[in-house]
Amino acid sequence: MGRTDRASRVIAASPATVYDALLDRESVEAWLPPDGMRGRIEHWDPRPGGGFRIVLTYLDPADSPGKSSAATDVVDVGFAALVPPERVVQQAVFEADDPSFAGTMTMSWQLTPTGGGTEVTVTATDVPPGISQADHEAGIASSLANLASYVETSGRH
């Protein structure tokens, strides 16, 4: 059994708005890359059994060498479960030669209504040992901050 990493944030938007941002290609491409990265989605099929492939490029690869190449992380993500507007479960596999990044990591996005909007809790299970827990939790928190900024400024609360 692998490691579990978590992060959460309250976002000032409805669960339906947040859920929509988790399943819209342009939205995901905009908010998912954590600070210091940009993303490009190569394939998009937002349904159970579908998924997407994202290429994350480090803006400064000297500080953070990529898992797939010197400057990139390539991740194939499958949608294991879609429960609108409550939960999205993804299974992520990194494209990497290094066995410390091998395996399937499950990312569960739980959306819980709160008085101030939606509490979004991300739980990553079976995290590959090559991914530092501190870096991973900071990356999830950064993606959540980007998601909050994206939906809160879109005017679609």
Describe the protein's architecture and organization.
The protein is an alpha+beta fold and 157 residues long. It has a domain at 3-35 and 82-153: Alpha-D-Glucose-1,6-Bisphosphate, Chain A, domain 4, CATH 3.30.530. It has 3 helices and 7 strands; from the N terminus they run βααββββββα. It has a 7-stranded antiparallel sheet. Strand 6 and strand 7 (117-127) form a beta hairpin. The longest helix has 21 residues, at 133-153. The chain is globular and about 45 Å long. The mean pLDDT is 92. Residues 13-152 form the Activator of Hsp90 ATPase homologue 1/2-like C-terminal domain. Belongs to the AHA1 family. This is Activator of Hsp90 ATPase homologue 1/2-like C-terminal domain-containing protein. Pfam families: AHSA1 (PF08327). InterPro entries: ASHA1/2-like_C, START-like_dom_sf.
